[in-house]
Amino acid sequence: MTQNLHVKFCGLRSTQDIAAAAAAGARYVGFVFFEKSPRHVTIDQAAELAIEVPMGLCKVALTVNADDAFLDALTAAVPIDMLQLHGKETPKRVAEVKARYGLPVMKAVGVADPDDLPQIDAYMAVADQILIDAKPPKGAALPGGNGLSFDWRLIADRTWDKPWMLAGGLTPDNVAQAARMTGARQVDVSSGVESAPGVKDAGLIAAFGNAAKV
Ligand SMILES: O=C(O)c1ccccc1NCC(=O)[C@H](O)[C@H](O)COP(=O)(O)O
């Protein structure tokens, strides 16, 4: 029996990207609000794109160390369903954001070695979901979306009682193995379905959706 992984396609920037993600069976679509990213969208662009997202698909807004003024403007203009915090937000800040906006919050935690794992537990206590991602290399321009994997064996025998997603360097070719090794039921992809940084490829999106039917 197939039990499809729940897929989040992140960094979507066009109506074509959204259509391709929906056709590939996405559960989540992610919009990146980080000016240095090739996937950055403005609040106005996201408001237009959000209208194109089919009902039932979770619209995730990814922000990095955003302040209340930015989040106020974002949540007033874009009908998002979840906030993804992808910076150095503390557990206290995660709790504040959750309370202020009344939206589910997913906190990204970067993993490179065993010392990073306690962070997952700390954020599990306050966030609704955790995105377990590869830690960006020192000096990287982006805190995520770098197309790099971490050693999946680090979390191979771990379970958590809240939903979590695996991210970092996933592709149509490795997503099934990554899910088998880590036990992930949800996966997030950005670079692995792009033909160039910030340019999503409909064929790769379809291939990823198929590969996520495990
Ligand atoms: O994708 C970005 O450009 C980005 C910029 C700033 C913070 C986070 C960012 N991406 C985070 C994501 O959720 C990615 O989907 C995740 O890191 C996996 O990325 P990839 O390894 O490229 O699949």
From TrEMBL:
The keyword Lipid metabolism does not apply. Pfam families: PRAI. One of its GO terms (biological process) is L-tryptophan biosynthetic process. Keywords: Amino-acid biosynthesis, Aromatic amino acid biosynthesis, Isomerase, Tryptophan biosynthesis. Residues 8-208 form the N-(5'phosphoribosyl) anthranilate isomerase (PRAI) domain. The keyword Cytoplasm does not apply. Signal peptide: none annotated. It is an enzyme of class 5 (isomerase). Pathway: Amino-acid biosynthesis; L-tryptophan biosynthesis; L-tryptophan from chorismate: step 3/5. It comes from the Bacteria. SUPFAM superfamilies: Ribulose-phoshate binding barrel. GO terms for molecular function: phosphoribosylanthranilate isomerase activity. It catalyses: N-(5-phospho-beta-D-ribosyl)anthranilate = 1-(2-carboxyphenylamino)-1-deoxy-D-ribulose 5-phosphate. Its EC number is 5.3.1.24. HAMAP family: PRAI (MF_00135). Belongs to the TrpF family. PANTHER family: N-(5'-PHOSPHORIBOSYL)ANTHRANILATE ISOMERASE. This is N-(5'-phosphoribosyl)anthranilate isomerase. It comes from Sulfitobacter pontiacus. The gene is trpF.
